[in-house]
């Protein structure tokens, strides 16, 4: 059977899905009495209008690259890790403990130690759901959702008690030592005499995120483990027949996924302008990761593009909410629409496009 | 704890259990027909908002209930489109519906009422109010002095809104539909072996759509109950994860209506305890027994299994034992008393832990240590007709 060209699958289908999501979002704007075109202009300006705004967009995009990769790695094994939110919080906890406990002399050391701790804590938080999925067949979706709730409970307990410095009002950890603060891109720009990115918190974590993309790409498509992950995702029975241990691969895949989500903490706790761990540290990034992975077709390049798009949406949505009476939750609506169209209604978008290509293709074949 | 407190706790458990029960039965119909429904939460939330908004606008709570059911069915049909017609991923569709409802309810509520994403309070005649049975006492002071039988009648039996009694009636009704009607037989069959149903000349698609629409109706009632009977109006995220807990209760109930009632009452009790006892004190010795005991049980279980079990459960046991020891040593040094004396000291259980208990219990239930649950065989798989 003929298939449509690869570019249509990779570019055209997501773009059409995005357009459909945009149309429905426009209807939502009309329903609450806002002009969709004006809203779009406001959001676009809020996302990339100034170099400060652009910096925030990149900052959020860094978050979403990590969580998007986390969801994507699990998707390759046909596992749905919806617990990114909790794993991010635990990652933040790990990073905060390590950075507050040890006076790191230089930010590079703090980055290595904090990043490792963040990844470790994120991975640990998925151990039990992963084990229950692998050994007891308990559904990973529900267990990870439960672990999200427990993570926020644990975080509030830690931030209201052990991690809170004496006399501090805010429910948060103390400020991290100055020496461990990651350089922001603005710091780097200043070295060249520019004030690019202004006060925005975008920092060198964005390069770590890109490195993580390369690592995931290499892992999934160029290692034996990656092959086993994909084999398990395609068919569990075939993978078992080929001698792949479903239990081990399920565990390892989810641990990697949790570690990637946890790593986001280097950006949103160690990288921000006044680095500390706050109680809503994840801010929904774990869930946006689902939309990012689906839109990016679980490929690191796609994930970077989708993360930039969602970074812009998140930042633009925040500016829109500040400037108008629209609640910031409009971002969640758009995110839901993207998940729906690219994830669940994929066939609805794909099959008409496919048919179009087939008809077009046959037309040229007759001419020859 | 006196008798009246127990009655009050039972009363609160029933009230908390009703939305769980309705959502649980919604999931039951859907999953029995082979369609996973993670989106129960979103459907309830959307129904909670729209029924509150429409009750407010029309002044008639029954119209509001219908509106809530309507929006819930609409979302169900979208879920059906994604998972039946277009054979998409049912989990992803459910997740999308949850986010859609969570975001849209707040955005629209702000757009319509401009009160920060909630509806204004509903007046008394635009709500489902408690029905007082003949002879039942209504004032708390009178109830406290009444005889136990009267307390039970007045507090536990009487005084609920009509939706509570309707909700309880859905249990025998669901049982009857599923096990005593032709439709129910076919519905159960389509979740186990859709190809057999198809071979018999019955439409798989139509059966599955009917199942998700029934789920929509039940979620709609559950949502309306939350915003028009439990509370007077819609607030942001007011379903508070009940949709997910209902799914866990469904597994606990092994996909059976009467078991679902039991499971939901149990979870209802958890929430009632949560609400009533924010401040639970435990003696250190009980904490030691609980934590070290469960650690020991897990270790013994793991040692008879494979390496991975030893690794994971052993690690968890070490963590639990460590928490127990830290509590013990911490109490001893904090109070400046001997280790043995510290065992009888009481410590406050963190309120965050108490709030997490229902979720923890869900995980334990899902772990299957509370009995084996076998889901419908064709659950989650789109049906592709053989060509």
TrEMBL record, chain A:
Localization: Cell membrane
Membrane topology label: Multi-pass membrane protein
InterPro entries cross-referenced by the UniProt entry: ABC_transp_permease
An example molecular function term from Gene Ontology annotations: transmembrane transporter activity
Ranges annotated as spanning the membrane: 12-33, 53-75, 87-104, 110-128, 140-160, 202-220, 241-265, 277-294, 301-322, 328-345
Domain of life: Bacteria
Claim: Membrane is one of the keywords in the record: yes
CDD domains per the UniProt record, alphabetical: TM_PBP1_transp_TpRbsC_like
Pfam families given in the database record: BPD_transp_2
Gene Ontology CC: plasma membrane
Keyword Transmembrane helix among UniProt keywords: yes
Keywords from the named record: Cell membrane, Membrane, Transmembrane, Transmembrane helix
PANTHER family for this protein: ABC TRANSPORTER, PERMEASE PROTEIN, GUANOSINE ABC TRANSPORTER PERMEASE PROTEIN NUPP
Protein name, entry field: Ribose transport system permease protein RbsC
TrEMBL record, chain B:
Top-level taxonomic group: Bacteria
GO molecular function, one term: transmembrane transporter activity
GTP-binding in keyword set: no
A single Gene Ontology CC term: plasma membrane
Cellular localization per UniProt: Cell membrane
Segments crossing the lipid bilayer: 12-30, 65-84, 91-113, 162-179, 209-226, 283-303, 310-332, 352-371
Membrane topology: Multi-pass membrane protein
Organism listed in the record: Octadecabacter ascidiaceicola
Entries under InterPro entries matching the protein: ABC_transp_permease (IPR001851)
Protein name (Swiss-Prot/TrEMBL): L-arabinose transporter permease protein
Keywords carried by this UniProt record: Cell membrane, Membrane, Transmembrane, Transmembrane helix
